[in-house]
Amino acid sequence: SYELTQPPSVSVSPGQTARITCSGDALPNQYAYWYQQKPGQAPVLVIYKDNERPSGIPERFSGSNSGTTVTLTISGVQAEDEADYYCQSADTSGTYVVFGGGTKLTVL
Amino acid sequence: QLQLQESGPGLVKPSETLSLTCSVSGGSISSSIYSWAWIRQPPGKGLEWIGTIFYSGTTHYNPSLKTRVTVSVETSKKQFSLNLSSVTAADTAVYYCARHVTGGEFQLLNFDYWGQGTLVTVSS
């Protein structure tokens, strides 16, 4: 089965830059997506197609793809960004959807 | 604004079938670029895709659940449903329905609209 690997946790101070990585063998050929999930809430899409930002998502959220690793970058982190972040993609067939295990972002 | 709402029993007995329905409002359920999905999240754990259905009836399932899962759609009612058979305590989770953006029936992309989720507990 296909897997996406994320670090379990990332910690940053307010105003700093947070980077969350996601690794998977099919990422050179499949888009990656990022979701933010706060406690008790449904996930919210923050990045689609590797580096596109949906309407309403702050510009401090950005995404990049460097082969088998994609990265979510949050510049100038704010307290409200503290949440779990999940990457999502598909395997090479395009019909098996996978989420990464999630990364808890702590704002110190 | 598209809205999705899950409904169904919050408690299911072991070995029985979990059945949930998702009602879609504020938009069409019949589209060639959108499909409809179920995702679950066990308490304190990560997200797991269960399956996706197109309005045509084409389905794609998570291989780890494929033998127990059926997703169906009723376009006239603007609803789609999940049946998960032979449940155990490991199936206890918050179940979300979502709209699944696609690039065709063999290219599943991202989830752009989600329901609020419903907790289903498997217990006798």
Features:
heterodimer, A: 108 residues, mainly beta, six-stranded mixed sheet, three-stranded antiparallel sheet, 9 strands, 43% strand, B: 124 residues, seven-stranded mixed sheet, four-stranded antiparallel sheet, 11 strands, globular
In words, what does this structure look like?
- The complex is a heterodimer of chains A (108) and B (124).
- By secondary structure, chain A is mainly β.
- Chain A contains no helices and nine strands.
- In chain A, strands 1, 3, 4, 7, 8 and 9 form a six-stranded mixed beta sheet that branches.
- Chain A is globular, with a radius of gyration of 13 Å.
- In chain B, strands 2, 4, 5, 6, 9, 10 and 11 form a seven-stranded mixed beta sheet that branches.
- The chains are: A mainly beta (108), B mainly beta (124).
- The interface between A and B is medium-sized, with 25 and 24 residues.
- Strand % of chain A is 35-45%
| H/E element sequence of chain A | EEEEEEEEE
What is the global morphology of chain A? globular
- What oligomeric state do these chains adopt? heterodimer
**Structural class of the helices, strands and pairings of chain A?**
mainly beta
Order of helices and strands of chain B: EEEEEEEEEEE
The greatest interface here is: A-B, 25 and 24 residues
* Main sheet properties of chain A: 6 strands, mixed
Annotation field: number of helices of chain B: 0
Q: Over all CA atoms, what is the radius of gyration of chain A? A: 13 Å
Strand content range of chain B: over 45%
First-to-last CA distance of chain B: 39 Å
Instruction: Summarize the biggest pleated sheet of chain B.
Output: 7 strands, mixed
Q: Helices and strands in order, then pairings?
A:
The complex is a heterodimer of chains A (108) and B (124).
Chain A (H helix, E strand, L loop, with lengths): L8 E4 L5 E6 L9 E5 L6 E4 L13 E5 L3 E6 L8 E8 L6 E3 L3 E5 L1
Parallel strand pairs in A: 1-9
Antiparallel strand pairs in A: 2-6, 3-4, 3-7, 5-6, 7-8, 7-9
Chain B lengths: L2 E5 L3 E2 L5 E8 L8 E8 L6 E6 L5 E3 L7 E6 L4 E6 L8 E10 L5 E7 L3 E5 L2
Parallel strand pairs in B: 2-11
Antiparallel strand pairs in B: 1-3, 3-8, 4-5, 4-9, 5-6, 7-8, 9-10, 9-11
